[in-house]
Amino acid sequence: MTSPTSAFRPSVLFVCVHNAGRSQMAAAFLTHLSDGAVEVRSAGSQPADTVNPAVVEAMSEVGIDVSAEVPKVLTTDAVKESDVVITMGCGDSCPFFPGKRYEDWVLEDPAGQGVEAVRPIREEIRARVEELIRSLLPSSS
């Protein structure tokens, strides 16, 4: 297998409103499952103060610690520097640059929900991230 530093390393930006749930889970899964082969960013159009505690718990259940993550504000530079921009309910607040790959993942918002409601969202995100990895790193399938 080619090491991530010896070949093109794609970059992905996950964007949701608060950067406290869906985008944090997606970024954590992509970081974990790509084993460093993909540069990962996440941001929010109106970032929360902290990551959703139910999201922290749900991700901990699958061995991924997001407790130290901090929601970040979406910047034009983050979009410019990414090859793929995946939005999750942020509407028109995400800047658009021609030539980038954009996807909109329609997912339930975990805000205000308990861990029981977050688990199925987590699993849907994991499946989408696995598919994303196959499209970005065909040799990893």
Structural description of this entry:
The chain has 141 residues and is an alpha/beta fold. The chain has a single domain, classed as 3-Layer(aba) Sandwich (Rossmann fold), CATH 3.40.50.2300. The protein is 35% helix and 15% strand. It has a four-stranded parallel sheet with strand order 2-1-3-4, covered by helices on one side. Helix 1 links the parallel strand 1 (11-16) and strand 2 (39-44). Helix 1 (22-34) crosses helix 4 (115-136). The chain starts with 10 loop residues before the first strand and ends in a 5-residue tail after the last helix. The model is unreliable at 1-6 (pLDDT under 50).
Question: What's the gist of this structure?
Answer:
The protein is α/β, with parallel strands linked by helices and 141 residues long. The protein is 35% helix and 15% strand.
